[in-house]
Amino acid sequence: MNPFYHKRTASLLFTLLTGIVCLTSQQTVTGFVTDGGGNPLAGANVFIKGRFDGAATNTDGAYTFQTSEKGEVVLMATYLGHQPQEKSITLNGEKVSASFILKPVSGIIHDVVISAGLFEAGDRKKSVTLNPLDIVTTPSALGDIYGALSALPGASAISEDGRLFVRGGDGYESKTYIDGMLSKKPYSSSFPDLPSRGRFSPFLFSGTTFSTGGYSAEYGQALSSALILTTNAFPERTQTELSFLTVGQGITQTYRKDDRSIAAGVNYTNLAPYYSVVPQQFPMNRAPEEININLVTRERLQNQSVIKGFATFSGSRFGLNYPDLTRPDALNSLSLKNNNGYINLTWTGEAGSGWILKSGVAITLDDNNLDLERFKVEEVNRNAQVRFTAKRSLSSKARIILGAEETINYFRQNYWEAATDIANTSQFTDYNTAAFAETEWQPAKRIAARIGLRGENSTLLSRQNLAVRLSAAYQLTARSQFSLAYGNFYQTPEEDLLRFTTNLNFERADHYILNYQYEKNSRVLRLETYLKDYKNLVTYDGVQFWNPDGYQNNGSGYSRGIDLFYRDQTTIRNLDFWISYSHLQSKRFYRDYPQKAKPHFAPENTLTIVGKYWISQITTQFGVSGTVASGRTFHDPNKPGFMNSLTSHYSDLSINCSHLRTILGKPTIIYMSVSNLLGRDNIFGYRYYTQPNEQGVYQRMPVRAQSSRFYLVGIFITI
Amino acid sequence: MKTLIILTILIYIWGNTQAETPSLDKAVSETLMQLHTAGSSNELYACVAKMERIAAAAPDRWELLYHLAYCRINTSFRESNGKLKDDILDQAEQEINSALNLGGNKSELLALQAYLYQGRIQVNASRGMKYSRMAAETLEQAIALDANNPRAHFLMGQNVFHTPKMFGGGSKNALPHFHRAMECYTASKQTNVLSPAWGKEITLQMISACEND
After folding, report:
1. DSSP secondary structure letters along A11-57
2. Is the CB of residue A202 less than 8 Å from the CB of residue A230?
3. Each residue of A69-108: pLDDT tens digit?
4. How far off is chain A from B46, nearest CA to CA, in Å?
5. Inter-chain touch B8–A13, beta carbons under 8 Å
6. How is A533-582 classified by DSSP, letter by letter?
């Protein structure tokens, strides 16, 4: 080889090498990363895409790094819970500065959410309030959804009834929706003064949204409150669950295969053995007995749409001897037979161009046979609802929901009176058609607003209504926000009124709510103040209750108050507790009230504390709940005026414990609870005899629990 | 001469493209080293950021998503804010799913998913029953796919170790899993520098912890 060539090669290589050295000379890239509100994001990652050169931002949101890249490159910024952002920059040896404003992925971190009136809960929304396990482990709830909700602010503890009484509203003013569909008879059938329970097991639901007012236009026909339950998604696996309780047994078999699952269960409840050990206030001539079967199916279709099916059928019987209020010292033998069925079928899928469609059918079948010795009442209720909704995001900041529903409600009552042999049948069918539209948008980063309209037509009443629902939230800081809500709520009068006349209008309530919420590290503080204005409540003459002309929409009323809620899951390790306080002032003129008065379901103050402490060494959770509430009004006919007296205050202390262990290699939960541990004799009100005694005094009978304490022991096994 | 110039340029170009691969390996192993020796949570977050940059450079490599998710899970264990823990794990879960979609090693990715479930328990002890069962089931699947996956055995051992004795857990019952994991670690040869390789040292530590218990 020619040495000249060698020289040339060497110089060439030298040139190339210096070139490489030049290429690797460093230059600086700096800038800031902030969120939309101008707050610095610390720990955001800024780097040149496709290269490792980059840095994380410091607490001021500033970053700086060196790179040897040249020319046009893509600079990328990422931050947890925020949409990544890219920027083209040119590196030409000079210092480059580039700043980013990252938008949150909606719903992940510190998103502004309208919270007025809403108690939302689910597996992921831990900090807000209750998940299914919270419900089951609330001592005073005894495994009942409605019992657990009574431990939240806004709900009054009306233990002798068992239904939800929200912010001075009557029990009928709260409705339950399952996967968006109406559940017409969510409570078990019972006699007055004996509490009913929810028909559905809390374990069926993954999400519980309890609205104490101001809720979305998606829901109607409830003056006070909507309980929106979401059934579980696909079960995790094939399994068998067994339960043995002091009050009954149950078995559920679940099959899961790929995109299909089915679960079938049978539960049998009989309180006879329990009553033979724990004496009851009134003799039971037939202890409550119930058999229930249920079926839950899930299927994902080829196009990824999901069909959820849920069906439950139950039959229950019970009877007891109860004082006859027309004859002192006499007992009537009462018996109740109830057959109930509920079917709920929904389909959710996509329809292209971003529309999410949901349609569903819900059917309630309910038959009650009451034998009150001197009267016999047979009630048949058939309710079917068809519903269709379409949802779509209009932009990253706005979405819209449109929907329509048709509800058919058939009611028949046969009534027979032994003394006069008078028999009467009343029956009617109502077709309620509703349509709604609601839009939610974020006009600014810290503001969210929702505007909804809902219109309804009832064929039975020949009336229409149009309701406006407005709400808005303003985020003060990353952790605190204010919400406001206003809305009109209409409800068709109850069947027990419509059986006398259908010449009535919808009852109406207007809600005004102001809410403040502060959330930090699994601690939540909520303060809410509200005004509920009732109009068009149905009134009638209590003496001539059979006279259709006496029924009018003349009633009115109000509720106002403050609800306070604090939940803390952090301060003390393994302790989760909440404090709920409600102050309520309510008066109304409705039904057979002769004048405006405070109803018996509106105690002025209610304070509830629930605490749960988990001890991992013994895998046991202990729970305590305590409630103190002001006395409730009742009408004493021996005194002048109406609703003129107040009971003594209510108090309850309940405890429970849940112990987890394996028995024969199977995970098992052993559960024990005692309600009203201190055995306080709570008096909920008084029933007065219809006739005065010889001294001209009306005698009375206190309304109290069937037994002061209730004990429950159960074993739950999963195979 | 022309040939020589072309050759030199080719070598230069080849060198440049090749340079990326060794530096990718090096960057990953350096970051993992930093992760395992990190003292503060800030250092952990810095590792996550670094791994994220590495993963973004080669988005078609499932191993990088694996390491990124692994860094996140480790970071979540040290994070004290429960909500943030969950958010970090949500992000890691997405990365595991993306790695599965890229056709990554399913046994390793399932084992990592199980590790993630164990991380979920740290948020709230009452989740223990649910997530330790999910972790155990996922690990069984991982072992069914590759009986010699040392990390699946190690994590199964961890699952048993942290389960109360009355549930069939505790050190005595965990030990066989750790021993099995150790056998796998000894027998395994790392075929690819980027493949998951962690866990041997902590397995040894767990064995001695179990034996001294």
Report:
1. HHHHHHHHHHHHHT--EEEEEEEEETTS-B-TT-EEEETTSS-EEE-
2. no
3. 888 888 999 888 788 888 888 888 788 888 998 887 653 3
4. 7
5. yes
6. EEEEEEE--STTTT-GGG-EEEEEEEEEEEEEEEEESSSSTTEEEEEEEE
Q: Dihedral sign, CA of A453, A458, A461, A464? A: positive
Inter-chain residue contact B134 with A43, CB threshold 8 Å: no
Residues facing A121 on adjacent strands: A208
Instruction: Indicate the length of chain B as a whole number.
Output: 213
B128 interaction partners in chain A (CB closer than 8 Å): 616
Is residue B126 within 8 angstroms of chain A, CB to CB? Answer: yes
CATH of A118-232+319-324+342-397+407-441+449-718, one of 3.30.1600.10, 3.40.630.30, 3.90.550.10, 2.40.170.20: 2.40.170.20
- What is the band of A405 on the pLDDT scale with cuts at 50, 70, 90? very high
B contacts of A665 (beta carbons < 8 Å) = 168
Judge whether B17 is closer than 8 Å to chain A, CB to CB: no
Give the closest of A52, A127, A618 to B54, CB-based.
A52
Query: What's the CATH code, domain A20-102?
Result: 2.60.40.10
pLDDT in tens, A599-616: 999 999 999 999 988 887
Q: Are the CB atoms for A628 and A649 separated by under 8 Å?
A: yes
CATH code, residues B106-213: 1.25.40.10
Q: Which of A655, A490, A528, A587 is nearest to A210 (CA)?
A: A528
Q: Is ipTM strictly over 0.90?
A: no
Count of CA atoms in the C-beta half-sphere (13 A) of A21: 6
The CA distance from A138 to A144, in Å, is: 9
Q: Which structure tokens are listed for A667?
A: 């995970």
Contact A33, A61 (CB under 8 A): yes
CA nearest neighbour of A574 among B201, B169, B171, B122: B122
Instruction: Tell if the CB–CB gap between A126 and B53 is shorter than 8 Å.
Output: no
DSSP string, A326-379: TSTT-EEEEEEEEEEEEEEEEEEEE-STT-EEEEEEEEEEEEEEEE-SSEEEEE
Number of H helices, E strands in chain A: 5, 39
The pLDDT tens digits for A137-162 are 888 888 888 988 888 889 998 888 88
Domain ranges of chain B: 1-104, 106-213
Give the relative orientation of helices B150-161 and B128-145 as an angle to the nearest 10 degrees.
160
Looking at per-residue pLDDT, the higher value among A26 and B152 belongs to B152
Q: Which stretches of A60-109 are DSSP H helices?
A: none
> Which residue ranges make up each domain of chain A?
20-102, 118-232+319-324+342-397+407-441+449-718, 235-275+290-302+312-318
User: Reduced to 3 states, what is the DSSP secondary structure of residue A260?
Assistant: strand
Residue in B50, B82, B88 closest to A522 by CB: B82
Contact across the interface for B87 and A109, Cβ inside 8 Å: yes
- What distance in Å separates the CA atoms of residue A96 and residue A166, rounded to the nearest whole number? 60
